[in-house]
Amino acid sequence: MQIKHLRTFTAVASALNVTRAAERLHLAQSSVTEQIQALEADLGAILFDRSKRRLRLTDAGRRLLDHATDLLSLADEARSAVAELADQPSGSLTVGGLETLCSSLLPPVLTTFCTAHPAVAVRMAAAGSGELRSGVRAGDIDVAFVFGDGPPEDGVERATVARERLSIIAPPGHRLAGRNAVARDDLADEPFLVTVTGCVYRRMFDEAFPVAGVGRPRLAGEFGSIGAIRALVAAGLGCALVPECAAAAATGLTVLPWVGEADHVPVSMLWRRRRVQPPGLRLFLATVRGGIGAIRPDGGHRRCAERTR
User: Fold this and answer.
1) Is there a single domain that holds both residue 153 and residue 177?
2) How far separated are the first and last CA of the chain, in Å rounded?
3) What is the pTM of this model?
4) Per-residue pLDDT for the chain (309 aa), expressed as one digit of tens each?
5) Domain around 128
6) CA atoms of 74 and 114, how far apart (whole Å)
7) Where in this chain does the entry annotate a coiled-coil region (predicted)?
8) 78, 106: one domain
9) Are residues 244 and 104 in the same domain?
């Protein structure tokens, strides 16, 4: 068995789709198919059931997946142990994050890291929280940044690297414009735009405005992205509760600091637990702790717009 074939197999097993696996691996679909066929020929077993529209793992495929994850982890650790001897770390590093964090918090840290370690090829991937977590567990993403603490996950390390203040964004000329801050009572029955249930941004809203709480705003609609919500707020459809760095990207809107029990949200960094971390990842984690530490996880920090300039 070749390591590259096992990596391709785990990518296909995770996506259950050759096209998506090929995009994740930056390979042609034909190459992915050839590698899976070569692995099946090597093992003398069919790994995927191709009889239906969606790929499914066979019993042999499920059994191999359990071992493939361990084998790939050991291969990474072996490579890392040898790389420790190199003067200049190299290799690749995939950094994932929510779109809001990729455009605000991460660029300064990536700039610092890439300047100090130019031989490490860095790739940034923006995705949702669930996709980021599964990517870390599968090894497709080396380190990811999400909002919220979340429950412990097997094989995944977690550290809170910042606390982001929450803000209310409102249409230009809103009745609350000019306020230093707003609280729940100021927003009673105000139309609000939210993301769908289960989204981390929706969780922020639900924690700030409990269903049974007094003064809960009126939901004016559910939308798929913070970018769409910002545009609709600008059009006058309603207000929204967003992290400060998302508010900083909103030009021409009324931005008001939110004051309440849930007025901050943690920013968490996730990475796989390994006996030996790849040098690039180990150095990146150190850079984050040194760079994002300036945001002061104790709650006091500068505006996100100031951090990214």
Assistant:
1) no
2) 48
3) 0.69
4) 888 899 899 989 888 889 888 888 888 999 999 999 999 999 999 999 988 778 899 999 999 988 887 787 777 767 766 666 555 677 889 999 999 999 888 999 999 999 988 989 999 999 988 899 988 988 889 999 999 887 778 889 999 998 899 999 999 999 999 899 999 889 988 999 999 988 899 999 998 888 765 668 999 999 988 889 999 999 999 999 999 988 887 678 999 999 987 889 999 999 998 877 888 898 999 999 876 644 333 334 333 332 222
5) 91-162+265-307
6) 27
7) none
8) no
9) no
